[in-house]
Design a protein that fits this description.
The complex is a heterotrimer. Chain B is α+β, with helices and mostly antiparallel strands. Helices cover 36% and strands 15% of the residues of chain B. In chain B, strand 8 and strand 9 form a beta hairpin. Chains in contact: A-B, A-C. Chains A and B meet through helix 1, helix 2 and helix 3 of A and helix 3, helix 5, helix 6, helix 11 and helix 12 of B.
Chain lengths: 249, 649, 223
């Protein structure tokens, strides 16, 4: 396959960026999208040009590092991560636009690499169960109904890639935040910190400069792990419950 | 002849920390004998933890909970992305919830046997003991393990064992356990007890007056090289499987931290013990950048087969039952498809070498779920393995519900690593290694679902107990002076190395060297090794190294985000480590676990150990790049599990 | 640390949801009242008069109506201010756009902001037209709402403004009702379809109900 790539190039956080056009040839449909970019980078390196910087690590769709907006879609046309997107999803002769995640809370570091540490700070605000090592009771002391365990798992699948923020017209982190809140709040182990968790995490999300939810649903459509939009509803409910209980004061 | 292969044998290494007495009491004894640090004094002591995977994440969180100042590093943008996240199948624990005859002793026994009698009994027993606490800890953190309708935890079986002791969270157990550790770590970061440095890579170790006192690290965003000091340094930097270029490791997983520590005096043990995982998706072409694992748990329900006839290229569903060879079930009737990884991998290689492999290039075998789907129904199979099937379909464009998966072995895990004593301390005082970065628990082959167990055992329970002893005996006195000649020397060496990489301006990319080295290693130091092949590799590696420093091209500068520079610098270390791996493989003229020497096999082609000569861990001492290292042997004593020829037939 | 309801994006959305639902309730009553126009001038005018005497003799003349008006004004202001502030925040959270543009979300979702502005402008015109009479086309007469309505819909621009506004109301409710349910946490995966269906039915009924009046005038059924 022969493709034309238009890639966002930006030297560093302070520099202005622009789209640059490259031609790549000899692309196999079995290549992953990132392997296609590897091919481009090998050529750029030999030509003495700066290769395109992009985040990636496990290339198995689980670490959440890869983060490209491809033809306007976070992670491209398939519901998966960029690393699991294969070139068979494109046609010979296609022109493909590749851009970084766009959100005020995710400033560009270089080219296609953005800074997602805001997500870490949201987790730090309350996305945990306070259980120091060694203090845990016997695992079978508290049975968890299977439906609750399954629901928790479904939300716990979030890989923290940020596609939800990238796809959201408001640059909101609602889906990311709600996934963790729902994961922990549905379990008996998460119950003691249920109220403070939701209030503190939502507050941190606001502090980071993410937008609000207009229920456009783009986040859930882009989510490679299929975290449902109802996750946000669940978070709202938890927030109202905690607020009504006066837990924030 | 390469001078590198003419190694000397030095003094044996002795694990001075392992207590004597009945094996079940050793860990308690060690914990009691270890000195403690007064809680008020802990705040004054700083521990550097490099890596945020299961071992590093859990260690950082636990040390911070205990009151130490923790300064932690990871090369990823978030501690949540460490490669432990990709572990799929599960975590072992001797809970015996199934009442199927499991016990701490059986897990201990299985692990020593699975490791082909090349691990240290005391360590393995401790691991089995702690396994039960890990499950408790993780459940309390909210890790959503799979449960049964009664609300209790579900388990499944893994290779090399006949009990069901593997706890799991669908095919994403590593992810869920890692997020548990990450969340515990996040809590400590928020509390100000952990100073976290993401996108910062350790480039060297600082040793002052014989003690590990800090590291040199590079901020990957700004390129700034800085020094960080502490009272002890913990390496939780994972394995070195990426020496092979193609492996199931993450693209950026690397050996720089452990190799630099080795260069500064830490012995490297059993580097040739690498695990080739039997169930990975076969490669599709030269563009391949990494290999993807399909969890071993699939072997619970999937049946492995190849056509009976050579060169049978009919599609799998056109091959009648009696023309299929379910070779694992045939050769190993009692363990069947659940034989340990080393055995399953080698069997796959053998049938492919016979010309009965399937798929492009004949490099693959079938893993067939037709029977399971018929027996359990598609829904049940989907619930157990749905995400793995999806992943397979995305990569190969084939539907594993209808067509059998094609799998082939790939480099997955490294049992070797920095030599550590019972306290997980390396031969450099104050330098500890935990998780895959050390060598201690898996011998020559790791059983499935044991890596997660070891990572968390080391991080949550072992290191936090043993490091106390070191810190109590070495109370904090002076801040390290940045002008100390040892610091300046390490800093200068690091800067010089990066500057040299940037200044060569040759005509070959870092990846091209990495690929070349990887192919060489896979051919000569992969699934089957021979003396002549290893000698060939030992001859070739210094040549590649020489060519590397002549022809490498790294664009850009060091004062910016520069992924090519990161990569090239890691290859520098692979080019030295690979040589040691080959030497270790050459010197160990026996077959054991993942290390298969063709010269040492039984008449029916099974690995043949040579216990009289090789019942030891080989700890290598660095003497200089390309210079013959010194071998120190740690004799392994088996008091409880007596070495026998492993049999899974 | 936790934020107050007004400071939090989730809290402000709650304000929008609650004020929106109050306005929705009012619209349902308003629409039903409007349909009385089909029963002739007498009944329609009597109904309009009753709105002012509602609650008597416990309450004084127009008190009940003023209570409703105050509640509505508070709802409108709270809704608009929240919407404005949230929109400002949303735009700030996504300062640079993608070069590769794609049509996103449903039409109803994308038109919430503009729809809201159109509705706000319409409310002003609507009050000046039929409550105070300042911009009324014919000779506005207090107490003769039937004739006033007929006058308004006898002009082309009266019809155009009204019909555009009613369509905007329909779209706004279609996304707004469902959205409010999610904000208030009553949505769930099992209930989602029912909620979406209800939102569509509400939007459709209100649109048809409100359109019935100008259509009636235009077709001569109401004159």
């Amino acid at each position: 396959m022969k493709l034309t790539l238009r890639v966002w190039r930006q030297k560093n956080a302070d520099a202005d960026g622009a789209m640059s056009t490259y031609e790549v040839d000899g692309i196999s449909p079995d290549m992953s999208f990132l392997e296609m970019l590897d091919t481009l980078n090998e050529e750029l390196t030999l030509e003495g040009e700066d290769p395109v910087a992009f985040d990636h690590d496990c290339r198995e769709g689980i670490c959440g590092a890869c983060s490209l907006v491809i033809n306007g879609d976070a992670h491209g046309p398939e519901r998966t991560t960029t690393c699991q997107l294969h070139m068979r999803s494109f046609k010979d002769g296609d022109t493909i636009d590749v851009e970084p995640w766009r959100a005020a809370a995710f400033p560009v570091v270089k080219d296609l690499v953005v800074d997602r540490t805001a997500f870490d700070r949201i987790i730090q605000a309350g996305g945990y169960v306070s259980v120091p090592t060694g203090s845990a009771p016997e695992a079978h002391a508290t049975p968890v109904p299977k439906p609750d365990a399954d629901l928790a798992f479904e939300h716990a699948e979030c890989i923290g890639c940020g596609a939800c923020v990238a796809a959201c017209p408001n640059g909101a982190a609602m889906l990311f935040t709600s996934a963790k809140i729902n994961h922990l709040n549905v379990l008996p182990q998460g119950a003691p910190e249920r109220e403070t968790r939701v209030l503190d995490m939502v507050a941190q999300m606001d502090d980071e400069g993410f937008g609000g939810c207009t229920l456009a649903g783009e986040c859930a459509t882009a989510c490679p792990k299929g975290i449902p939009l109802s996750s946000i509803t669940g978070m709202n409910k938890e927030w109202l419950r905690a607020t009504a209980k006066g837990a924030g004061r | 002849m390469s001078t590198f292969a003419e190694y000397a044998t030095g003094e044996p290494v002795v694990d001075a920390k392992a207590p004597s007495g009945p094996i079940g009491e050793r860990w308690d004894k060690r914990r009691f004998e270890a000195k403690l640090v007064n809680p008020a004094n802990r705040r004054k002591q700083t521990v550097i933890v490099v890596g945020t995977g299961l071992a590093g994440g859990s260690a950082g969180a636990t040390l911070a909970e205990q009151g130490y100042n923790v300064v932690q590093f990871c090369y990823t943008d978030s501690p949540r992305r460490a490669h432990s996240i990709a572990a799929q199948g599960g975590i072992n624990a001797a809970k015996n919830y199934r009442n199927d005859g499991d016990s701490v002793h059986r897990l201990f026994y299985d692990t020593v046997k699975g490791g082909d009698f090349r691990s240290r009994e005391s360590n393995v027993h401790r691991l089995a003991q702690i396994s039960v606490e890990i499950i408790d800890q993780c459940v309390a953190q909210g890790v959503p393990f799979a449960r049964e309708y009664g609300g209790l935890l579900d388990t499944r079986s893994f290779g090399g064992v006949q009990v069901s002791r593997t706890f799991y969270a669908r095919g994403q157990t590593g992810q869920q356990l890692l997020l548990g550790a990450y969340q515990a770590l996040s809590r400590q970061i928020a509390a100000g007890n952990v100073e976290m440095h993401p996108r910062t890579e350790m480039l060297d170790l600082i040793v002052i007056d014989g003690r590990a006192r800090g590291i040199v690290a590079r901020d990957l965003v700004t390129g700034k090289i800085d020094t960080y000091f502490a009272d002890a340094v913990v390496l939780a930097t994972g394995g070195y499987g990426n020496v092979f270029y193609l492996s199931t490791n993450a693209m950026n997983s690397n050996a720089t931290a452990v190799w630099r520590a080795h260069r500064r005096g830490a012995y490297f043990a059993n580097p040739c013990f690498t695990q080739i995982h039997p169930t990975c998706i076969p490669r599709t072409g030269d563009h391949q950048s990494k290999l993807t694992l399909m969890s071993e748990s699939l072997r619970n329900d999937g049946r492995i087969w190849v056509p009976r006839a050579k060169g049978d290229d009919r599609p799998p569903n056109k091959i009648p039952e009696d023309e299929r060879d379910y070779y694992l079930e045939r050769i190993y009737p009692s363990f069947g498809n659940l034989v340990p990884r080393d055995i399953a991998s080698r069997a796959a290689k053998n049938v492919c070498d016979e010309g009965r492999g399937v798929g492009p290039g004949g490099q693959g075998v079938y893993l067939d779920f037709a029977d399971a789907i018929e027996r359990l129904g598609r829904k049940a199979v989907e619930a157990k393995y749905g995400n793995l099937f999806d992943m397979y379909q995305r990569i190969t464009d084939e539907d594993p519900y209808r067509v059998p998966m094609r799998i082939y072995p790939a480099v997955h895990y490294t049992m070797g690593g920095l030599w550590v004593d019972y306290d997980l301390q390396t031969t450099v005082p104050g330098l500890f290694a935990i998780g895959e970065a050390n060598f201690s628990d898996h011998g020559a082959n790791r059983l499935g679902a044991s890596a997660l167990m070891q990572g968390l055992a080391d991080g949550y329970f072992v290191l936090p107990a043993t490091i106390n002893d070191y810190l109590a005996r070495n109370p904090h006195k002076d801040e390290v002076d940045t002008d100390h000649p040892a610091v300046q020397e390490v800093l200068a060496e690091t800067e010089d190395r990066l500057n040299l990489l940037l200044s060569v301006d040759g005509d070959r990319t870092p990846d091209s060297f990495h690929r070349e080295l990887g192919e060489l290693m896979w051919e000569f130091c992969g699934m089957a090794r021979t003396e002549s092949g290893l000698r060939k590799a030992l001859e070739r590696i210094p040549q590649i190294r020489e060519e590397f420093w002549r022809r490498i091209k790294v664009p850009g500068t060091g004062e910016e985000f520069n992924q090519s520079l990161e990569r090239a610098n890691r290859i520098v270390d692979y080019l030295e480590l690979a040589e040691l791996m080959c030497l270790d493989a050459l010197h160990r003229a026996e077959s054991c676990g993942g290390h298969f020497r063709e010269e040492s096999q039984s008449p029916d082609g099974e690995a043949a150990r040579r216990d009289e000569e090789f019942t030891y861990a080989a700890a290598w001492e660095f003497t200089g790049t390309g210079d013959a290292p010194v071998l120190h042997k740690e004799d392994l004593v088996f008091e409880y599990v007596h070495p026998t020829q492993r049999s899974y037939a | 640390m936790a934020r107050t309801v007004w400071d939090s994006t989730v809290g402000k959305k709650t304000v929008m949801a609650v004020s929106g639902l109050i306005m929705l309730l009012y619209l349902v009553a308003h629409m039903l009242g409007n349909l009385k126009i089909y029963f002739g001038a007498l009944e329609f005018n009597e109904y309009a008069h009753w709105l002012r005497t509602m609650g008597e003799p416990l309450l004084h003349y127009e008190w009940a109506l003023w209570v409703v008006r105050v509640v509505l004004v508070v709802a409108v202001v709270a809704h608009a201010v929240s919407a404005y502030q949230l929109s400002r925040r949303d735009i700030k959270a996504r300062p640079s756009k993608y070069v590769h543009k794609k049509a996103r979300a449903s039409y109803a979702t994308r038109t919430m902001r503009w729809g809201g502005i159109i509705l706000a402008l319409f409310i002003v015109w609507h009050i000046l037209d039929l409550t105070t009479g300042h911009v009324h086309s014919g000779g506005f007469e207090e107490g003769k709402p039937y004739q006033n309505v007929v006058d308004t819909f006898s002009t082309w621009y009266g019809n155009v403004i009204y019909i555009v506004a009613v369509l905007a109301v329909g779209l706004h409710i279609r996304h707004g009702f469902w959205s409010a349910a999610q904000t208030l946490g009553v949505g769930s995966r099992t209930r989602d379809r029912a909620l979406k269906g209800l939102a569509n039915v509400l939007a459709l009924l209100l649109t048809i109900g409100f359109l019935a009046v100008p259509v009636g005038v235009m077709t001569g059924v109401v004159s």
